[in-house]
Design a protein that fits this description.
The protein is mainly alpha-helical. The structure holds 3-hydroxybutanoyl-coenzyme A.
């Protein structure tokens, strides 16, 4: 059901870009090697374009599906302040999805094609959004760990060789850092001033989200089919494993300040490596989730498709209004 989404594009529409052209390819590689940024109007090899479509569309879908696990807590937020923050955060995620769809559209794919691939299960989105949000503490932990992992992964994309993606990421990262901060602050409030039950709720949420957050960075480098080429092209600047390690190193001291225990008995500082060592990740769980069989995959996709279908009348009305309006506007100008 979930496939390598390199065939998202209707090939007939894009044959011009896929035809091999060794001279232009060499010039393109030289530009990449010189650290230049590629703009939408520039020539690029077909595989570079498809790799970007794959990554950017998956990223956009992740932002859009990422609204769902938090949205069911908006009406149950404990205070008006928390509700306003959560509402703003969920709206930000929607905005991020839209910037990213717009960035992908510059690569010769339509938004309808991307959305259809998401809805029919051909496109991937981040594994993390297939886990349930059981308590209010999950909102804090998602901000702290999930948005924290997202920032760690996304800051290097601000230097992605494809300029429209890099530009979109600059604004997204600014907003993501607010998301991470608000999550951490919500957890600090519960851990420092909360009841024993609230503290236990935070610990339980951390226990459930820690390992899936480490999985967000993708498979180990040795098993990542796309990494080598994406690194050569400057689409990815830091490898999956290096980002995961940076995340662990940054997060352990934050956990100590919070006063929670990370659920990994093998987690310890390795002075020789100057990094934290951590226990083995359950990659079979990761692939199960990525392949559509995580705890909430069906629920998330159904909710997304239902929202799209029940919004059809808004899109129809907007299109009908635009059609009606166009001749009048032209006549007036
Ligand atoms: N969830 C689902 N699929 C994943 C995944 C994950 N966490 N990690 C890897 N995969 C998939 C890849 O997409 C690839 O599948 P494909 O070949 O069919 O497309 C396959 O597993 C092998 O992985 P690779 O490491 O070879 O793939 P990439 O080189 O594309 O690296 C990535 C994966 C690191 C996620 C990279 O695509 C990336 O950096 N993407 C941009 C950032 C992004 O999409 N983040 C998602 C979270 S967004 C978010 O969290 C929103 C925030 O508001 C919280």
């Amino acid at each position: 059901m979930y496939t390598q989404a390199m065939d998202l594009i209707n090939k007939n529409d894009n044959d011009h870009a896929d035809a091999p052209d060794p001279v232009r390819e060499q010039a393109f590689e030289a530009r990449i090697a010189a650290g230049e940024f590629i703009e939408a109007k520039d020539w690029m090899p077909g595989h570079y374009r498809k790799t970007l479509i794959r990554q950017i569309s998956q990223h956009a879908h992740s932002e859009i599906v990422g609204m769902l696990p938090e949205s069911n807590w908006i009406s149950r937020a404990p205070t008006l302040k928390r509700k306003a923050i959560l509402l703003a955060k969920v709206q930000d995620e929607g905005g991020h999805g839209l910037y990213l769809y717009a960035a992908a559209e510059t690569l010769d794919i339509s938004r309808d094609q991307m959305i259809e691939a998401l809805h029919n299960g051909r496109a991937k989105y981040s594994s993390i959004f297939n886990y349930p949000t059981l308590t209010w503490a999950d909102m804090g932990v998602i901000g702290w760990l999930v948005d924290g992992a997202a920032i760690m992964n996304q800051v290097p994309i601000c230097r992605c060789s494809y300029a429209p993606y890099a530009r979109a990421m600059i604004r997204i990262c600014r907003e993501e850092s607010f998301h991470q901060r608000q999550g951490y602050e919500a957890l600090l409030t519960m851990m420092q001033g909360g009841t024993a039950a609230q503290k236990a709720m935070v610990q339980d949420a951390v226990n459930r989200w820690w390992w899936p957050s480490l999985m967000m960075f993708g498979p180990p480098d040795s098993e990542s089919p796309n990494s080598a080429q994406s690194m050569r092209w400057g689409i990815k600047r830091v490898s999956n494993d290096d980002l995961r390690q940076k995340f662990v190193d940054a997060t352990v001291p934050q956990a100590e300040i919070l006063g929670i225990t990370l659920p990994d008995p093998l987690l310890h500082w390795n002075a020789q490596r100057a990094h934290y060592d951590f226990g083995p990740i359950q990659w079979d769980e990761f692939w199960r989730v990525v392949n559509g069989n995580g705890p909430c995959n069906h629920e998330r996709l159904k909710m997304r498709v239902d929202a799209w279908e029940s919004g059809a009348w808004v899109r129809d009305a907007a299109l009908a209004y635009a059609k009606q309006k166009t001749p009048q506007t032209t006549a007036q100008t």
